[in-house]
Amino acid sequence: MRALTVTPGVKNSIKLAQIREPVPTASQALLRVREIGVCGTDMDLNQGFYGEAPPGSSYLVTGHESLSTVESIPKNDQGISKGDLVVPTVRRPDDCINCQHGESDMCLTGNYKEHGIKGLHGFGSDLAVSDFNFLVKVPSEVADVAVLLEPMSVGEKGVYQAFKIQERLLWKPRRALILGAGPVGLLTAYLLRLKGLDVVVTATRTKDSVKAQLAQRVGGTYVNTIEQPLQTLGKFDLIMEETGSAQVAMQATGMLNTNGIMCFLGIYAPTEAPEDIGSFYKDVVLGNKTFFGSVNANINYFRMGLKDFVEIQKRFPGVLRDTISMRIAPEDFQKAYSPNKDSIKTVIRFNN
Ligand SMILES: [Zn+2]
């Protein structure tokens, strides 16, 4: 069968290979993969920055964002049967206390595995396997956009955690700032518009770009920070940092309202900065401000994402569909690895 593989640690090793079909274990479903989404993590894997092949394998099948049809599945209490459409979660738990309580996204040890990233093959192949306890059943009404569920789950977790933390006080957020208009940033914008917040999305593409239009179609405001500096945008009750730029993140810390909360979702490169940290800490104290990080998402956030997809489809028709900027065949995978200025989310379609 066809599989998109990388050799971990080797730059530009991505290729469409022929490999043997996987054989599911007693706790696994066999999945016929419909499509996978390609994201920054996949680019990093192909740069050799990280990635770990399963034990005994010289390669890693990529693809952690996916949508599949169940080809076969053992008897289960998840209500999933052959022919169902499913999205598998990415991370598989280890034996730490959080993992053992359904919070593998909060893993204490780092010994978890991740499909398509760390120690388990991904879903970028004609057939794939996943533990059936980590499959989310997809209703047909959102089938054409369900490949976006994994990036959505990351936004869902960040937003859920922010609101959860803010139960510490009476909090009626009005203005939200989303730094970065990649797929996770845009999906977070749709989500926060559902929650009724005024949403400002910032990035560096022009105001007539598709990303800008998508932010506006849900009633958000798009700001090109090349034309309008961040500091002119005022204060915000909730800030979601999704650019992964330490400089942008640092600038934005000063834009948080009293009692506000800021969530960091990027993977930041080492960056030294001569900031006045004393004034920053004073501002954090006097304003009761909260800063926190969020990574990955457990199955609960995937389920929340699905519910919100149904709502987003009703409130903002076509927006999720248009967040997928290109669908290509596996043979054309290089297109996904050389994004252009109109790219948002590229999806690779393996099977119908
Ligand atoms: Zn763990």
The hetero compounds bound to this protein are: zinc ion
* Beta strands, count: 19
Shape-level CATH architecture of the largest domain: Alpha-Beta Complex
Report the radius of gyration as a whole number of Å: 20 Å
Structural class estimated from helices and strands:
alpha/beta
Q: What are the segments in which pLDDT stays under 50 over at least 5 consecutive residues?
A: none
CATH homologous superfamily designation of the largest domain: Medium-chain alcohol dehydrogenases, catalytic domain
CATH third-level topology of the largest domain: Quinone Oxidoreductase, Chain A, domain 1
Q: What would the keywords be for this entry?
A:
2 domains, six-stranded parallel beta sheet, binds zinc ion, 352 residues, 19 strands, 8 helices, alpha/beta
Describe the structure in your own words.
Strands 3, 5, 6, 10, 11, 18 and 19 form a 7-stranded mixed beta sheet that branches. Strands 14-13-12-15-16-17 form a 6-stranded parallel beta sheet, with helices on both faces. α3 (183-194) links the parallel β12 (175-179) and β13 (198-203). The mean pLDDT is 97. The chain contains 8 helices and 19 strands. The protein is an alpha/beta fold. It is globular. It starts with a strand and ends with a strand. The protein has helices at residues 40-47, 149-165, 183-194, 210-217, 246-253, 277-286, 299-315, 319-323, and strands at 2-6, 15-18, 28-38, 60-61, 65-72, 85-88, 91-92, 113-115, 119-120, 127-131, 135-137, 175-179, 198-203, 221-224, 236-241, 256-264, 290-293, 324-328, 345-349. The longest helix is centred in the middle third of the chain and has 17 residues, at 149-165. The protein folds into 2 domains: 2-137 and 319-349, Alpha-Beta Complex (Quinone Oxidoreductase, Chain A, domain 1), CATH 3.90.180; 153-293, Rossmann fold, CATH 3.40.50. The site of zinc ion has 10 residues, from loops.
